[in-house]
Design brief:
This protein has 537 residues and is α+β, with helices and mostly antiparallel strands. The protein has helices at 12-23, 27-37, 47-53, 72-77, 79-87, 97-108, 113-131, 154-173, 189-199, 222-232, 236-252, 255-263, 271-275, 282-290, 296-304, 320-323, 327-334, 482-504, 518-527, and strands spanning 60-63, 137-139, 148-152, 182-185, 220-221, 316-319, 341-348, 359-366, 381-387, 391-393, 404-406, 422-428, 431-437, 442-445, 468-479. The chain is elongated and about 115 Å long.
Amino acid sequence: MGASSSTEQVSSEQREAETLAASTGALPVLQKSFSRLSNPETKAIPVKSLQECFSIAFHDAMRESPHVLDYFLQLLDHLGPSIAEVYFMSEKGGIGWVEFLRGYTKCCGRMSASMSLGALMRVFSVMTVKVGIPSKLQFESDDADCKISGSLQPNELLGLLWICWSMTWSSRMSKFSNEKLNLDLPDINNLVLSAVVSCAEVGNDLNVWDCDITKLELQLPAGKIHTWALNTVPNLADCFVQFVHVRLQKTAISEQSEMEASSSLISDVSPTKSCDTHVLTCGSAWAISLSLRSTIGQEILRVCFPSNEERSEESLLYRSSIHGKGLNRFWSNVEGYHGPMLMLIASSGNSEGTINSRRWIIGALTQQGFENKDMFYGSSGNLYAISPVFHSFSHSGKEKNFVYSHLHPAGRVYEPHPKPVGIAFGGTFGNERIFVDEDFATVTIRHHAVDKTYQHGSLIPDQGFLPVEAHILDVEVWGLGGRTAKEIQLSHQKREQLFTEQRRKVDLKTFASWDDSPEKMMMDMMADPNSVTREDR
């Protein structure tokens, strides 16, 4: 079973391997998994069994992206054999207990994000060789922290990102069913273009608005790709780590649990089709989740992988094309939600008319709900350039002007210096980095020089130093606080609705008689408004 008994002599190598595996908290799972995969006679796991364990089985590949790699499915077929070859050393009889623990530690052990990313790229390099394509990645040694040189083309990077998406898809879907499902490949061209802009010296020759990634003849240095991934999508390597752990964990569960998982229902609608009508697509949601090292990333992934119990629409709090444009409509749908929110703005054109036909999307993530205040507030947040190029801008650590949301005051009072009415992120009053007017008609984006709250960078391509005023096409707000935050908001809305209905009602019992009632007064006025009535003194 892999576990050493008290009567057996435990070697120092086995004790060291078990200690490292126990530090991850997965030693009991590994013991059960080894027991089910290994041959009782040889007490080793056959190589073929481990290869099948790490292979992804699917019914059909459905593509949302217009750029499809011909060899991607061949790459995916070699995922299991490549993982077993690189990290699980086999002997004549198969993979022993110590080699099994060492392989797991190399994949899922406690290590830095840089080392995990190197492990992922090493597996991808072997996959490309097995397909018949010479790998351009070079590793100085077999150490996990060795230097990686060489390069990748944009289409090869797209294949690597799709492999990571497939591993995330498999890890999430395996919790609901053991049956073969359709593998949905989302459009992640914004991620590839983000790497191209950051890693290649393209200058002004690259047209990000209309770019065919498969035709880009560029070489992206491996070192720059490594740096880009750590800064933009630091959770990319976790796709590989979670995949290996979930696969071995799945083999450790009992047969009865497998039958229950296979009989559980999942959403009949594919992940990409369930959100292809939204501003937040599956590819964009996945990209945002990769940029967050918190539980919020897992909430965003529910948009990509909805189950029957939790539909993705439940997290959608507001959409201007459905609920109506304007700050009042917005406020009536988000008021009372106390949790993280993701606001997306789809726009086109600018005041100069240079990109009138171009559609771009930006976003802002807040760690708390919106409040009606005449000042900036918030504790943390992120800004996102989502389409056509993905970038993430976190807190700079200098100022705390995260979010501003102000409605017209209920009472008409004179204000010598009225505060702007609308929603803003970053910057200062009058120089907000992102400002949405109260009618949700236009959005103004200013240069990052006016903002000391969020990190520097362009929110749209070719932004320039002057402010950009664009027409708003659609606005979405997604609640990322889970089911608890949604239930609290529903109770708040019911309470507000009850108070509104009570204020609208007129209790006739409060009037002394019919002569004092407002109905009697109105009827008298309608009958003869000029009649002279005697006033009682």
